[in-house]
Amino acid sequence: MSFPATLPIPDEVLEIARRLDDAGHEVWCVGGAIRDTLLRTRTGSSALEPFDVDFATSATPEQVQALFRRTVGVGIKHGTVGVLDRHRVLHEVTTFRRDVTTDGRHAVVAFGVSLADDLARRDFTINAIAYHPLRHEWRDPFDGAGDLARGLIRAVGDPAQRFREDYLRVLRAIRFAARFGFEIDAATWEAARAAGPSLDQLSAERVRDEWFKGLRTTRSVARLVDLWTRVGAADVWIPFRAVSFSAAEADRSPRDPVLLTSLLVADPAGALRRLRASNAEIARAEAIQRGPEEPAADTPEAVRRWRAVVLGAADDLMAIWRHRHGAVPGWAAAALDSRARQEPVTRGELAIDGSDIAAAGVPPGPAIGAMLDQLLDRVLTDPSLNTREQLAAIVRSRP
Ligand code: ATP
Ligand code: MG
């Protein structure tokens, strides 16, 4: 594959490169933006998405900080300084680095190395291409452009060693393959599978980020699941269940990682807890798991009673049903209608409250709650009863 003569890099990004270059530092554009731009060139779609370029530079983090007024220390330890352009968009500027020691989870890095060293420590050939934004030169020592053209994920250097240095690369290989619809080079795949059992050494947060990113970006959820399974990552982190869900459906909708995890995993809340997802995400998965997955019948009353049990999980359960059956459930219209009419499904939505009930002479204590439950039950059968007068009459007529 040949390189385009120039890449249309926005002026505000060029300004950052020019300032580093003027100060005598080497500066190159690297990483995902360059890869994605080349890929778009290849597929003939010339539309350039606004891109947020990563720079690699010979300048040290201190030198970068001294050159720019507005910087953010995003990862100083790893040599990364965030530089805000004049539109206050952040661009990462990372000092050329080489990994000195790695233990599969952490890296100690050395600065003061060349672009060639910096590219050599990157994970895959397609991620190790550099473009000089001022001189319009390309550096592609591992034929990443060739692999982009072939549709291949290939490790830079010896794949087994590269995975041992950082097992997350196994999951990254899968993510990129699934996202671009690429194959994984045979030697890289073999090493990835051999590394599968070692994925248990990764931190839960990094695995979760990869899983969520993978779900959001993959062309096909089924392919991502298949790769996670075959590489052994599923055994270690996310035990999938045999799902017969409509993959086409999952592939069309905006990707929601918590929803998809609930669909794909037997114990989604447990898996998300293990992946250290947020409390809100775990609670959402628990509510989905609790169900019931559908109303007992398609009648308006059964649907209201179901809403009263599942509460905030109704939309998720509807979406799960759709994924599983590849169709909109027959009761969906009734559920949406019930909500649109604001039919009461909780005690709090009743037209009277505990103090009204006490005022009607019910003794304070559990009797009040029991009465509210009774009223809600009546209203679930017939929502038109939900007026102050009618509910008060029911309270007064109590035995
Ligand atoms: P994305 O579109 O997901 O952001 P990206 O290629 O930009 O893709 P980043 O995670 O943003 O991925 O990393 C930027 C670059 O840093 C990568 O292109 C790669 O060169 C390098 N890199 C990132 N993570 C690793 C890793 N674990 N091992 C080696 N190189 C890595
Ligand atoms: Mg990136």
Tell me about this structure.
The protein has helices spanning 11-22, 32-42, 61-67, 115-120, 144-150, 159-165, 168-180, 186-195, 204-217, 221-231, 233-236, 247-252, 257-264, 268-274, 279-290, 300-310, 314-325, 332-340, 354-359, 366-381, 388-396; strands at residues 27-30, 54-57, 71-75, 80-84, 90-95, 98-102, 107-110, 130-131, 138-139, 152-153, 183-184. It is α+β, with helices and mostly antiparallel strands. The strands form three sheets. A seven-stranded mixed sheet has the order 3-4-5-2-1-8-9. Strand 6 and strand 7 (107-110) form a beta hairpin. The longest helix has 16 residues, at 366-381. 36% of the residues are buried. The protein binds adenosine-5'-triphosphate (ATP) and magnesium ion (MG). Magnesium ion binds next to loops.
